[in-house]
Specification:
2 copies of one chain form a homodimer. With 469 residues, the first copy, chain A, is an alpha+beta fold. Chain A folds into 3 domains: 14-274, Bira Bifunctional Protein, Domain 2 (BirA Bifunctional Protein, domain 2); 291-382, Rossmann fold, CATH 3.40.50; 403-466. Helix content of chain A is 35%, strand content 27%. Chain A has 15 helices and 23 strands. In chain A, the strands form 6 sheets. Chain A has a 7-stranded mixed β-sheet with strand order 3-7-8-14-11-10-9, with helices on both faces. Chain A has a 5-stranded mixed β-sheet with strand order 16-15-17-18-19, sandwiched between helices. In chain A, a hairpin with a 5-residue loop joins strand 12 and strand 13. The longest helix of chain A is centred in the last third of the chain and has 29 residues, at 373-401. Chain A is globular, with a radius of gyration of 25 Å. At the A-B interface, strand 2, helix 2, strand 3, strand 4 and strand 5 of A face strand 2, helix 2, strand 3, strand 4 and strand 5 of B. Strand 5 (92-97) of chain A pairs antiparallel with strand 5 (92-97) of chain B, so a sheet runs across the interface.
Chain lengths: 469, 469
């Protein structure tokens, strides 16, 4: 008789499967204030690894971290016209503090363009101060009417980069460098997620940007998720905040700025790109726990063997966790590690020890294999790269299988019911409303070879159309 | 003719010297909303290193990081009576969000005891779930009437640990473990700051605690700064939030909780413990830039030599920064690195290259020495440990020289005019108001041998009295 599954199957109800994974893998809980979330230790461990890998790449691109205040005077938001229009409906406002009503209301940052603009104006005096390359890891707040854990929450954690450059060309190059070297490199090589990179249609840019570039990934229900964006802000914020500098020739010039961000939303993308009916599947390059060493019963020396293998794994550079909680039933623990998507599970009990072996279970394929104790650590270490590749290739094959070429709006709408449509940009350029009526959007615009175009007016561009989170 | 100093001398006006260092070393700026701060890249670099070193130690104590929401329903705060009384005057309140007035007002967390209490109640079902050891890195808000950068700001960054235990004994041991193994170990060995550890008088505990332990350091004006605290919360929050578990015997029991925190205030402590009239002095173990390699003029191969030495230093594990900004005058750059307190400055110009040497300048002693290029990297690496020890020993000697034994309240008040007074606790136990009239407080209570007592009723305890930040 089949057991009732721990999770709602993906095919039955994908959104419910997603919420089940979040609960059962102990990734997050809903916070007490509408739309907020509590990120539990296992979920936060994923985020810490994302931060660390991203931070290395951002620093390699030359940016330095800084911290700007949570509270922004309401008047700042109104300085850039499109920006205030974009964010007004989502703002949380502090009106009362220190026991008194405030004279000027203060907004909780929805993003930091404005306050950073104010300080860039102070800090960029001379051409010597450029480029100014800043990044911030912080929480931001956007009041959500239809919250969804990790994907759309009232408060979320993110990094926001903000840079100022002497020329438009330099800003353009930098925004692209971040897109490729920080974002795509991390998402493809660490998260094992295949991406479409491209520009957003002009009607769908960030509030105040002259160009928005995005990383788009396919989830296992065929929908798209925007994993990160990099914006050229032109001189819009520079003019609004008077960010100028003295050039080599002694002339006062206005800077060009960029901003770029990724957030805890990536955790949602990770779940929905790799997860299966047994739970999350975490790529080894990301996993903060790469191998769980499970002691079945602490008898006949099994405890010592488990503990020794754990030490060997750590020694070999594998992020191992020893699970010797033998007063919790073994089956339940095995299911828990499966739910959590740890790449490799090692099972060790008295019978294994007697046979001088351990049992290795791969989370990606479900494959179980007995392995001699003496080669267990080396075998597991070798599996890390293999599982990483398998997960990436599986996601890529899934995306390919669920992508159709379309040559009309009608065909694009049909394809977007189950996956992505690639369609000539010229066909859908004026079809925003027609697509939207079916909840379909242009996720990004690419060149035919998949590279990122300079603008939407180039010839022979392709639009990736899909429903999206 | 003496040049006008870059900084106000410490002896002339210590608070102004402090503010000068913050500005000139580009550590922070005031934010636009009263009492908030912008942490600039150099200041944030110090904080990142503090985070990293602390995080390692906290994890070694078994705690895991998690993230709880910024927004807390106002009703939560009122559940623990002393807690709400302690924080009410400092709260920032969101009354309006998403374009509407809120039904229940929401406070911006001043600390997360209450919201974490709520979730601990969900997560601790069985004795198997204990101890529950959580830590959070986050921003918190306490509306400040007299803000001071890093020391008292309306928003600050911190870590707050929150743990739940089966017994009072276990909670007590863990709160002490954090105090010693995470906090004191970091502050003494990385920040090079000598500490007094002890308990707070009962009238000066954290709001809701049954015991507060603190790390107290002496600043160079003789005042004390509290660098971190670790609290036993008894069952106050557990009762208020109904945090119970089923024991091994199947009985429903109430947990014992602790909380502990350190913040960006430590940056203020670092400045005032080690800084001198030339600026900050950063201990090498902390410094994110341990050596600045200054190219004087890019002539006769000096550029290549500087760049090569920088690479060698990185190779040798020294956190080096190459400064080849030769279009900024050399003297100004040298002063800037001095202001920033980088432990070692290396000066390389065409004349040095001709003589096959470089000039090494120690920030702690100001000593300048020519060193052969071939042994430069090894010499600098060796200096790291030496400078670390020198800074610590200097701070300790300063503290000893400015600490007096007192046997009466009057003597304690006299000594506290310029430094610390050690006085029998029995002498000052009832003198809170008398001390306070002179702005003096009991910083902590210790045993005669400097260890941390169990409570203030032990015999022969000593009180450290001082004025404080």
């Amino acid at each position: 008789m089949a057991k009732r599954p721990v999770l709602t199957p993906q095919s039955e109800d994908f959104p419910r499967w997603y919420q089940d994974v979040i609960n059962k893998a102990e990734l997050a809980d809903n916070g007490p204030v509408r739309g907020t979330m509590v990120i539990r230790p296992y979920g936060y461990g994923l985020w810490e690894r994302m931060q660390s890998e991203m931070d290395d790449r951002i620093k390699a691109c030359g940016a330095e971290n800084a911290y700007f205040p949570l509270f922004i005077p309401e008047s700042y938001l109104t300085k850039e016209a499109e920006h205030v229009e974009g964010f007004s409906p989502e703002l949380a406002v502090v009106t009362h503090a220190g026991g008194k009503d405030l004279e000027e209301r203060v907004v909780v940052r929805p993003t930091s363009e404005t306050v950073i603009g104010e300080f860039m104006a102070k800090w960029t005096q001379s051409y010597r101060d450029l480029p100014l390359l800043l990044n911030q890891w912080a929480n931001v707040v956007r009041w959500e009417l239809r919250p969804r854990t990790f994907l759309r929450t009232t408060e979320f954690l993110w990094q926001e980069g903000h840079t100022a450059h002497a020329t438009r060309e330099d800003a353009n190059v930098y925004a692209r460098r971040i897109l490729h070297e920080a974002y795509a490199d991390f998402m493809v090589n660490v998260l094992a997620m295949p991406l479409h990179l491209g520009i957003k249609p002009s009607y769908d840019r960030f509030a105040g940007a002259i160009n928005t570039m995005a990383c788009e990934a396919m989830m296992r229900d065929g929908k798209a998720l925007q994993m990160g964006t990099s914006h050229e802000l032109g001189q819009n914020f520079a003019n609004a905040f008077d960010i100028t500098y003295q050039s080599v020739e002694g002339v006062q010039e206005t800077v060009w700025t960029t901003s770029w961000g990724t957030s805890t939303r990536m955790i949602g993308g990770l779940i929905m790109c790799h997860g299966d009916d047994k739970g999350l599947r975490v790529p080894p390059a990301l996993a903060h726990i790469q191998a769980a060493v499970l002691l079945i019963r602490d008898e006949d020396g099994a405890g010592e063997v488990a503990s020794k293998l754990h030490d060997e794994l750590v020694e070999a550079g594998v992020r191992s966790r020893l699970d010797a909680q033998v007063d919790t039933p073994f089956g339940r623990r095995a299911t828990d590690w499966e739910l959590k998507g740890v790449p490799v599970r090692v099972e060790i009990g008295p019978r294994d020890v007697a046979e001088n072996k351990v049992t290795i279970v791969r989370r990606d394929t479900g494959e179980k294999q007995p392995v001699g104790i003496d080669i267990a650590a080396a075998t597991i270490r070798g599996l890390m790269e293999e599982i990483q590749i398998t997960l990436h290739d599986e996601a890529l094959a899934f995306r390919d299988a669920n992508t159709a070429e379309a040559s009309t709006v009608a065909e694009a709408l049909e394809a977007a019911k189950t996956g992505f449509a690639t369609v000539p940009w010229s066909v859908v350029a004026d079809a925003e409303k027609e697509l939207a009526a079916d909840a379909v959007t242009v996720r990004c615009i690419q060149r035919a070879d998949g590279t990122v175009p300079d603008d939407e007016d180039e010839d022979d561009l392709v639009a990736i159309c899909a429903r999206a989170y």
